[in-house]
Structure formats: structure tokens, C-alpha cells
Amino acid sequence: MGLEQLSPNDTKGKIITCRAAVAHGAGEALVIEKVKVHPPQKKEVRIKILFTSICHTDLSAWLGENEAQRAYPRILGHEACGIVESVGEGVKDVNEGDYVVPLFNGECGHCKLCKCPHTNMCQHFGVNPMKKDMVADGATRFTTVDGGKPIYHFLNTSTFTEYTVVDSACVVKLSGLIDQHSLKKLTLLSCGVSTGVGAAWNTANVQSDATVAVFGLGAVGLAVAEGARARGASKIIGIDINPDKFIKAREMGVTDFINPKDEDKPVYEIIREMTGGGVDFSFECVGNADVLRNAFSSVHEGWGLTVILGIHTTPQMLPIHPMELFDGRRVIASVFGGFKGRSHLPLFAKQCLQGMVKLDGFITHELPFKEINKAFDLLVSGKSLRCLLHL
């Protein structure tokens, strides 16, 4: 799909009717139906989505695991790439026809957090799973074909649709860095790969010869492993209860494997024995308090760091006694791998395309958009890392 197929002059300033996969209830199959996508307003961008993929965060939202996220009808999705169809008043960073990646964790560039070099949070456009409309006017840019009722947004992006509208703070331009054939791989930079690699590079700052334990070998966990491999980690231990994941994990830098179901003692004890006291870094990519406990206990006293990436949907508190932090072990969470999306992603995309990070292994399946429910089934069954959907 090329730029010549967009014809922005035919649709600019007009309502577009297109296909979208709409969620109507928790756990219900998504429905491919016609929706209306309204023109971008001030500081907004309308994007023609070319490729999108499914992340476990989409899965959690689809299942309605957090009651506060249940707003229907809703268009989910936050990993994608596409072409700018039109821009609203005041948008200067992207133009019609630009290749772009949407950002669930935006960067306005002006707030106190955006100006701080120690965080990638944004006061106005940071990740917010409860947000269901646009900031500008509290309305949606999606409506039903019959009756014009609102269809809610998701994670600043809503990519399970042929066209979407996002705030300009939530889109990064990649034109000039890539060609059309590389575009689909960069869909992964919207979330999974950036989140995992960035956690290893930015949050933990893994260095050569470091020892690493990755709890959960989904796409994010393997991205952590890939980031650690690229930094020269000497030992990368992968922990997962699905042995089928070990083959792919070995290809992506994991050196040792532990299946908790095969062991008769806690995983952290095994890791301490393997590494002479514990790893330098552990990454919890599951969103489970018991797993987090093992991850924290597996790092070395004095300097070990545990990075939380998994989404914990229950109200359960951290399974750590305050006194355990006095031996030098630390714990921190990482959102979007510490990347400031608009500032840092162009360089990261270039590094990926130069081979510093191997993207091809993350795309395990490709399907047409109309088979999105099959893609969800593949993720639920643990058979796919990322299923790329072609719109």
C-alpha cells in the first residue's frame, strides 16, 4: 500500500466511513463494522492505518479485567503504523502523506514532565487506560453509522480501524528513515519491542557481561532479552511455564531456561545457585504478584534491580517487606521502556533497521484485518508473539 493510494484531498475535512473492529462487551468477539471517523480538530491527526497488531494490554482490555476500563462500544488497539491522511489546525510536526507510528504514551513536549530528562511521562498525554475520548473537547472522533452515537477511544490511539484520530502529541514521524517495505516491522515500536528493549537499555541500563532474568517470555519479555543481548549480557535466563516458547527465546538471546512447573523449589533459589548469589537485573513481564516476588528475590543483594513491566490488574499490594530493601535490592516500574516517543523513537527505529535489534522474529503470524478474532485466539493460546494484521 503506497502513498498514491491515500488521496488525502478526497477526504480532507470530511467524515470518513470505514471498517473497524468494535468491542461491544467484555470478552465478546470483536465485530467488523462500518463506523464514521470525523476530521481531526485542533492539534489532532487523522491516520490511515496500514498494519496493526495485538498486545496483551489489548487482550486485558478486551477481557474487561479492569472494571474501570469497561466502556462500550470501543475501538481497541495501540500497536500500528500508517500514513497521515490529514492534520488539524496547529499541527506542525507531521504532514499529509507522512509515515507515522501512533504512541499510547504521548509527549506534548511542553509540560514539566516532558521537559524533565529523568522521565518519559507526560502530564497531558501519558498512558491512561481509562481515557475514552479526546482531550480537546471531551468528545469522540468515532461514531456509529446509524444514529451517530459515540464509539469510545482506547490508549490515545485506537488502531483496530482503517482510520483513526490521535492527538499530535501521540504520533511520531518516521518518513525519511524508512521505506515502504520496512514499515510493517516498525508497527512493533508502538509498544512491545520499545517497551522491552527500552526497559533493558533505558530503565535498567544493562551493560556488557551483566546477568539477567526475564520472567515471562511473551513479546515484551523477549524484547527485554533482545535488548540485553544487544548490550552484551553474559547470561540471560528465561522463565516461563510454556516450554514451546523456549525455542524462539533461544533465537533471541536467552541462554538458560527455567520452567517453574518442572522444579521442586522456588525459582529464585535456582537462579541464585546458577549465578552465585543472584542476577544483576530481573524483569517481571507477567503481571502476577507471586512472579514479582520471585523476580525480586532472584537479584543479587547490594545492587540487584527488578524492573516491573507486567500489568497488575488486581488491587494486591507489592509482595515485598520494606526491610528487604535495606540490603541494596531495588525495584522500579518501566512504561514504554523509558522512551520519550517523539524525541527518541526515530533514532530507535534507525537502530532497529540497522540490525542492532532484530525485529523479524517478533512477527510470528500475519492475517488480514477481518480475521482479528483469530489473531486474538492465537495470542490467548500462546501460539503467537505478534500477529500482524493487514488493513
UniProtKB/TrEMBL annotation:
GO CC annotation terms, alphabetical: cytosol
Keyword tags: Metal-binding, NAD, Oxidoreductase, Zinc
Domain Alcohol dehydrogenase-like N-terminal: 42-174
Any single GO BP term: formaldehyde catabolic process
Domain Alcohol dehydrogenase-like C-terminal: 219-338
InterPro entries in the cross-refs: ADH-like_C (IPR013149), ADH-like_N (IPR013154), ADH_Zn_CS (IPR002328), GroES-like_sf (IPR011032), NAD(P)-bd_dom_sf (IPR036291)
Catalytic activity entry: a secondary alcohol + NAD(+) = a ketone + NADH + H(+); a primary alcohol + NAD(+) = an aldehyde + NADH + H(+)
Pfam name, any one: ADH_N
Cofactor needs: Zn(2+)
Leading EC class: oxidoreductase
Molecular-function GO term, any one: alcohol dehydrogenase (NAD+) activity
EC numbers for this chain: 1.1.1.1
Top-level taxon of the source organism: Eukaryota
Keyword ATP-binding on entry: no
Record PANTHER family: ALCOHOL DEHYDROGENASE (PTHR43880), ALCOHOL DEHYDROGENASE-LIKE 4 (PTHR43880:SF56)
Similarity section: Belongs to the zinc-containing alcohol dehydrogenase family. Class-III subfamily.
Quaternary data: Homodimer.
Protein name, per record: alcohol dehydrogenase
